[in-house]
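Re: [help] complex structure
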Amino acid sequence: MDGSERKKDRKRESILRAAVDLFKLYGFKKTSVSDIARRADVSQVTIYNHFGSKDGLVREVVKAQLSGILERARGIMAGEEPFPDKLEAIVFDKAQTASQYHGELMQAAAQNDPEMREFIESFWRTDVTRATADVIDAGKREGYINPQLSAETAMLYLEILRRGIFASSDLLEDLPPDADLYRELNYLFIYGLIGRRG
Amino acid sequence: MDGSERKKDRKRESILRAAVDLFKLYGFKKTSVSDIARRADVSQVTIYNHFGSKDGLVREVVKAQLSGILERARGIMAGEEPFPDKLEAIVFDKAQTASQYHGELMQAAAQNDPEMREFIESFWRTDVTRATADVIDAGKREGYINPQLSAETAMLYLEILRRGIFASSDLLEDLPPDADLYRELNYLFIYGLIGRRG
Amino acid sequence: MDGSERKKDRKRESILRAAVDLFKLYGFKKTSVSDIARRADVSQVTIYNHFGSKDGLVREVVKAQLSGILERARGIMAGEEPFPDKLEAIVFDKAQTASQYHGELMQAAAQNDPEMREFIESFWRTDVTRATADVIDAGKREGYINPQLSAETAMLYLEILRRGIFASSDLLEDLPPDADLYRELNYLFIYGLIGRRG
Amino acid sequence: MDGSERKKDRKRESILRAAVDLFKLYGFKKTSVSDIARRADVSQVTIYNHFGSKDGLVREVVKAQLSGILERARGIMAGEEPFPDKLEAIVFDKAQTASQYHGELMQAAAQNDPEMREFIESFWRTDVTRATADVIDAGKREGYINPQLSAETAMLYLEILRRGIFASSDLLEDLPPDADLYRELNYLFIYGLIGRRG
DNA sequence: AATGAATGAGGGTTCATTCAT
DNA sequence: GATGAATGAACCCTCATTCAT
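Output below.
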């Protein structure tokens, strides 16, 4: 039935949201299933009925997280802004910039779960790589990326920046979202420490 | 007695080393006091006699870790190599590039422990800031850093790079330590995505 | 409607069969209602609609089991074979010789269920006693049972044999169903360890 | 130290006894670790410290149980009574005649524990077989067992009797320990249903 | 100073059962 | 009558910590 289906989905969403929130706040290990249940206003068992286990839950959270990041990145790249703006939007993707819980999550997801490991690796190998390659192409086309720079190195650099920003959210989170600092950092990404010359 | 003192210190060191090893391998939460005791070949209670609690232990580990990083950075800055080499050495500090256990540790240390939070913040505010400022000064003096770049932004950039590299150790760990990639990345840090022109 | 009735009965049978199978395989406590539902291809709730509770289900299983044993025994006694063959057929009743799940079942059925306890005891007192008495009468009539042996003792002996064989199914289950061993054991039941003399 | 050792052993014994009692009363699966802890007046965790897991506990219980039975049997065989008395003493071993919890225990012990399975099988193959062979030899020597009876069959018969009595403890437990019934049953074991003739 | 033994609190998970449709 | 979804209670187990020696 429709009502039941929708209700079930609502509970599912509610659990997922609660899980994401608490994982971000306290990390994966410190968040208990009972905490999640309480926050989602749901019985603990309902979580098991939906996701099978805590690992099953984190699996879904990770999948949703990864897809979300990718989707947003694609949306940004499809727009018409100049490259620096796109770069800024992608690298500073707000939704993921929220404490370094991500690493722990990924680790937890991959650790005891070969299937998940495969999923993550494949996701990285195909989707992320392709998306990042698009970014780099755009940058080269618009003259913001040195055409001689190998795609491999560029991708690694961007990844380091993403993760670094991600892991520095404690330093950034108090800034107003329109602070000049973002622009300046973005400028650094493109022109380096040495800055624009001539 | 001297022998007793030395023996005591040896136990202390043994516990610390065991803790660091296991934290790196399995993370802070997944490492139990009993694990550490077993690896250090010591009774659990001995750990409590020395460090008071698990949090007390992690406090010491963090202090040692931070001091180590700082000391190495100072050593590097005191040398005579050109700025790019120094930058590379500092940013890629091998000893800390070892799984992203660091973030979890810091979080654990700071979370339930105001004293520790104070220590870390003060450490950051004084020691790290000062050291990073030294790096930036050197860079400016040698013409590798845009003199108009504010110290604040530069420091943030360097911190982002450090943490990003740290969090990307999974991508870097299979590389030979003399790979060109390090040089290329370092080049990117200085000259940006746009590269050296003219 | 007839079709609905028959369908309902089919579900009932399907549940009972699934329960018996799983109880035999894994025991009563280790078999969950959800397991039974899955094997019977039925919703858990259907089991409750039919039997009220897990205990209610086990009650029905036990009743069916007991009636089955009794019915087979009566069939055998009604036949024309000589007494030793009848004895063998009854004591080695294949259908119940299938792991010692039986005891657990009876215990579970009787434990929290006074009504069931009453049923089992009455069943024992009337049906089983009567049937066993028939066996003994036949044995005496054909000269295979010492006429001076009290019915009480003889019945107890037969019951011990039945349960002993039941509980030894692990030792017997690999034997071919026509093995000499069955005859030899049966011979022992009649002639004892000392054997036929003279 | 001596005091600590003795205290530890006392706790160990206390736990074992509580476990045996409860297993006999309610069966293995229905007895929770917390029940055992409460009855032994000990923290649950102490049970884990001593036995590692519930399965570990049942392992020890089973080992103790088996060794006990064997030891008593050997003691009996070493005595000077005539064979029928020995047979009675062994087959009706009181200490094990206490509900059919035994089967469930063995099953639980062997199920998830290859090491235990090995232990039980080896125990059966060597100790039990040898002891039973001794019984049979004594019976033959004293003329109570048909010399032509194969050892295999005789052992199986005795085992069936043991288990049958074991599983019939509900029928026997109300009898006074000196009841004639025991003698009569024993008589049946030796002379069979047909009784002594001539 | 060091230890073996013991523990209260809490974690993930399963189960028999009920509710709403 | 049948079901999918949801649940409270209970279970096995682990952990950081303390007690007695």
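The longest helix of chain A spans residues 114-141.
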